[in-house]
Task: inverse folding
């Protein structure tokens, strides 16, 4: 692609705009329009520059234009390094302080060698009135100025690039939201700021890397999904005993990609139609989570409204079987859920991750978790030595210690969840020594080992008794 420079014309234009903006407030409207038209004609005659204006408010609309806010985010990422006059502000629901381009200031940007200028203007209303309407306040706008010979590349490529980058910057800056479904098809949300990340997630490092790579590949896969003709979404099934980090991993996913979380409580959804409406009301770049999916759907694929059931209960245990057939309010069906995940409507949500968690993977309907629906099955297991080392680094800030060897041996012969190991590693007193925390882990592991031995012995004795009873002649 041919490179190009806007040279001094862009700067003169932006400079004159500043002067014009300062004096225009003293002129009547007809004179302003006349001078402005004359000025553009003159400019175009000598140097064929072009410009595109992005107004803060579209006529008749009370909301700020999305293009304007996205451009503002894009330019704020450039302004800190390039502009000489900046505004500092805390944007709504944005984490860091944002440094943005000030009024009547301009900066230069470069797209594949083509130089463009951005100017931020402000139009002051003719009459100052006390009003709540944004149309009576100062109106701002951005003007993109470029050489006319680059019209095509700027209009077709650069503007789209700016919008995409700006949106990505907004997502990165925005505080994460955790949505919950309430009554009907509305989502309520809370701003959430959970620090869990893949760096602090205790898991075999190689497996962790695979998962992180998979997530990043997905998030950058817009063109790929388009090429293969598939909706841009990916399903992850997280399974394992309680306390192995299923919920923590969802937060780590959200923090890695900057996605919001939609925590869908299936038992409160009335029917398939409501499920569909909930889906339509979600935004792109999000993780749709159904925790303990085995507790929400029964064997037959019919949801059972079983509020009495505890998380750890086997869904097809006696308790669950008793409830079967009772659920007269049960309207969300397995096929409704399958449609929700990958029916035609799933395409409305845009870039999306779906996560199911379960403690009983073997109880789930294979249709629900087949590859293509739940693309990656992630087993979260009891604490391994590799996972322990991550926890020791998180909690005690150590990479190695003479007591590690003993802990490694114990972890091989007994089972303990990362949640339990983490709890034992937590110092119980301010300034507790590292040894004290590691010894607490060893102590807990030895108790678990002993309990395991006693249990195994008991099972062996019971089996022997059963064999003896069977061999006694009737
Ligand atoms: N792999 C892990 N890495 C780091 N911390 C962990 C891990 N697993 C568990 N934890 C710690 O244990 C606590 C409980 O974990 P979490 O709620 O994620 O488990 P879970 O598998 O979702 O449990 P449940 O099935 O009961 O919902 C977390 O707050 C976290 O601090």
Result:
């Amino acid at each position: 692609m041919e490179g190009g420079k806007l040279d001094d014309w862009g700067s003169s234009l932006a400079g004159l705009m500043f002067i014009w903006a300062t004096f225009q407030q003293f002129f009547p409207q007809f004179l302003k329009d006349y001078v402005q038209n004359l000025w553009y004609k003159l400019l175009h005659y000598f140097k064929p520059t072009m410009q595109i204006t992005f107004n803060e408010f579209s006529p008749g609309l009370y909301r700020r234009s999305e293009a304007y806010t996205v451009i503002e985010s894009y330019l704020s990422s450039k302004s800190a390094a390039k502009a000489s006059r900046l505004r500092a502000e805390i944007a709504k629901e944005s984490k860091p302080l944002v440094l943005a381009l000030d009024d009547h200031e301009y900066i230069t940007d470069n797209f594949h060698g083509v130089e463009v200028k951005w100017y931020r203007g402000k139009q002051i209303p003719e009459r100052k009135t006390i009003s709540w309407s944004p149309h009576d306040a100062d109106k701002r706008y951005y003007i993109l100025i470029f050489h006319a010979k680059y019209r095509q590349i700027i209009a077709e490529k650069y503007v789209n690039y700016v919008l995409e980058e700006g949106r990505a910057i907004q997502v990165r800056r925005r505080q994460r939201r955790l949505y919950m479904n309430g009554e009907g098809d509305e989502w309520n949300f809370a701003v959430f700021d959970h620090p869990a990340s893949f760096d602090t997630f205790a898991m075999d490092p190689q497996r962790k890397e695979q998962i992180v790579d998979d997530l990043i590949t997905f998030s950058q896969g817009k063109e790929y999904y388009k090429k293969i003709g598939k909706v841009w979404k990916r399903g992850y099934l997280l399974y394992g005993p309680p306390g192995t980090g299923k919920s923590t991993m969802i937060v780590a996913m959200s923090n890695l990609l900057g996605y919001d979380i939609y925590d869908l409580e299936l038992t409160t959804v009335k029917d398939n139609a409501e499920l569909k409406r909930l889906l339509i009301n979600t935004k792109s770049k999000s993780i749709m989570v159904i925790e303990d999916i085995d507790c929400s759907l029964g064997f037959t694929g019919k949801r059972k409204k079983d509020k009495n059931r505890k998380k750890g209960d086997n869904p097809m245990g006696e308790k669950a079987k008793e409830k079967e057939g009772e659920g007269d309010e049960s309207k969300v069906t397995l096929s409704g859920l399958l449609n929700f995940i990958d029916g035609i409507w799933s395409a409305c949500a845009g870039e999306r991750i779906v996560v199911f968690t379960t403690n009983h993977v073997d109880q789930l309907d294979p249709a629900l978790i087949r590859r293509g629906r739940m693309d990656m099955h992630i087993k979260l297991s009891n604490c391994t030595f590799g996972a322990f080392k991550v926890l020791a680094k998180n909690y005690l800030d150590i990479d190695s210690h003479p007591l590690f060897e003993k802990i490694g041996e114990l972890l091989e012969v007994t089972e303990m969840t990362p949640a339990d190991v983490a709890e034992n590693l937590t110092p119980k007193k301010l300034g507790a020594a590292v040894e004290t925390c590691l010894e607490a882990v060893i102590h807990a592991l030895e108790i678990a080992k002993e309990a395991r031995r006693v249990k195994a012995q008991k099972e062996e004795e019971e089996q022997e008794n059963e064999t003896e009873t069977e061999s006694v002649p009737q």
